[in-house]
């Protein structure tokens, strides 16, 4: 399944290996699904595809079910197998990242709901260029974070953390632009505010991708790098 | 410490008990701090108290440090003590709720940053009545969720979950009110949008309080009630 992941191939107990593999596979599947949900939500918004917007909201149930299944799997591993060292870290990291994946699914669903409303009103509002741009970046971040998770790749995880800093800056700038649109033409306030909520969701998705990447560093290096500046993270990672 | 909490008094191993007590105490202390952060952030906003707004942002570091300490304590318990049954559920629930507490701290910090900006500009914008009202409700929710956690009180946890439904409804209504303010007087768009972000943060805090309460139900009953309607939760809880 994940031949390059060192955690998933070193166990003597084949039953433990199977259990962990099983949850890991579910986690990666959920990740792929969530990535698709975000892509579809943005697509539905920008191309005013109402059916797709409805589909994204509907599929949020599937994401939620994955979250429950994964947590249940992890709890069983803890109860039966008493993992230690890097195995324990993988279980903990997956439990945290699982929450982040579900939240990304939530944000995709919120974007899809707004897309559905905007579809009904027709005509695309201003701010779509910014949405497309930030949306694309955020999708890459989710993909890279999951890839880093699958391969326990600290360098890739670091890249995602850095990308989140860009996103935050671009989100600020896009918000300012939207504010001027509203002041210029107050008739479109309600519509532009909807685009603002979308940007906010995208910014949050970036945060969650960053969180997942921080869990990759925890898993691989045993270091808790949450609430730490990029310079500090780089320094810490290179020390070990 | 928590004489009424059945999980914290039944252990034969006194070392295990001490470890779990220790993390539990930290968790409750963090909870109290976070509750205060939210109260102070709202206070700073409504009474244009800039110093308090700065203090809230500054103290976010303390909240973050608690999050790290608690997770470290929980990991050590998992590695050394191999908790089972309700003990394991308490460790897992505390790990999840820990994340929620930290996010509540984040939202308080965001509110405080906005409060600081608004202080500098002087003059209180419209929408403060809504903020005060929802702010008070959300504070009660955090308090009740933590209280339910400390006493493993499922009924109280259920009450918090129900309160979250009210918050969501009032948030929607307040957002609509703010929208009309902006359309009526576009000169205040920037300021009213800031109040909108505050309301959004409060609504998110309500979600986190609900999440913590769901973990209380998981801890006490072993049931995962996330993504479940209130009717279903009540039914499930009463079945057991």
TrEMBL record, chains A, B:
Transmembrane segments: none annotated. InterPro entries: PhoU, PhoU-like_sf, PhoU_dom. Keywords: Cytoplasm, Phosphate transport, Transport. One of its GO terms (cellular component) is cytoplasm. GO terms for biological process: intracellular phosphate ion homeostasis; negative regulation of phosphate metabolic process; phosphate ion transport. The keyword Cytoplasm applies. Pfam families: PhoU (PF01895). Its main location: cytoplasm. It is found in: Cytoplasm. Residues 29-114, 132-216 form the PhoU domain. Belongs to the PhoU family. PANTHER family: PHOSPHATE-SPECIFIC TRANSPORT SYSTEM ACCESSORY PROTEIN PHOU. Homodimer. Plays a role in the regulation of phosphate uptake. This is Phosphate-specific transport system accessory protein PhoU. The lineage of its organism: Bacteria, Pseudomonadati, Pseudomonadota, Gammaproteobacteria, Moraxellales.
């Amino acid at each position: 399944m994940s031949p390059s992941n060192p955690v998933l191939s070193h166990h003597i107990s084949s039953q433990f290996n199977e259990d962990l593999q099983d949850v890991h596979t579910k986690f990666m599947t959920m990740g792929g699904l969530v990535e698709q949900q975000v892509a579809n939500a943005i697509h539905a918004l920008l191309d005013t595809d109402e059916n797709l917007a409805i589909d994204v909201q509907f599929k949020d149930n599937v994401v939620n079910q994955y979250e429950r299944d994964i947590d249940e799997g992890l709890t069983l591993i803890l109860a039966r197998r008493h993992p230690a060292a890097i195995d324990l870290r993988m279980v903990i990291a997956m439990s945290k990242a699982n929450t982040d994946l579900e939240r990304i699914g939530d944000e995709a669903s919120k974007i899809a709901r707004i897309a559905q409303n905007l579809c009904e009103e027709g005509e695309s509002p201003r701010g779509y260029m910014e949405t497309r741009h930030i949306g694309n970046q955020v999708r890459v971040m989710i993909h890279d974070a999951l890839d880093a998770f699958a391969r326990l790749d600290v360098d890739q995880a670091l890249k995602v953390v850095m990308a989140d800093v860009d996103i935050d800056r671009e989100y600020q700038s896009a918000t300012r632009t939207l504010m001027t649109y509203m002041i210029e033409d107050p008739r479109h306030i309600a519509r532009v505010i909807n685009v603002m909520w979308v940007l906010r969701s995208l910014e949050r998705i970036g945060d969650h991708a960053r969180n997942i990447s921080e869990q990759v560093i925890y898993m691989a290096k045993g270091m808790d790098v949450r609430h730490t500046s990029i310079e500090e993270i780089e320094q810490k990672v290179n020390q070990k």
